[in-house]
Amino acid sequence: MGRSVIKKRHNQDARAGAAPYSSTKHALNNLSLVARAEFAPLGIVINLGHSGMTATNFGYNSMHG
């Protein structure tokens, strides 16, 4: 049957200013776990991929606009 892969990196940092990013990551993680349970009876497998870090200016840009 069908497969869906949702990639994320596990992160539990509690840093000032990171609430929007951290809460969105947590929501995606839980959404994928619920989807896994709900779609399993249909033969659809939901996997979580934990990717590594990438070199970007994302952190700096999110804090300094």
UniProtKB/TrEMBL annotation:
InterPro entries: NAD(P)-bd_dom_sf, Sc_DH/Rdtase_CS. Residues 1-10 have a biased composition (Basic residues). It comes from the Bacteria. It comes from Deinococcus aerophilus. This is Short-chain dehydrogenase. Residues 1-21 are annotated as: Disordered.
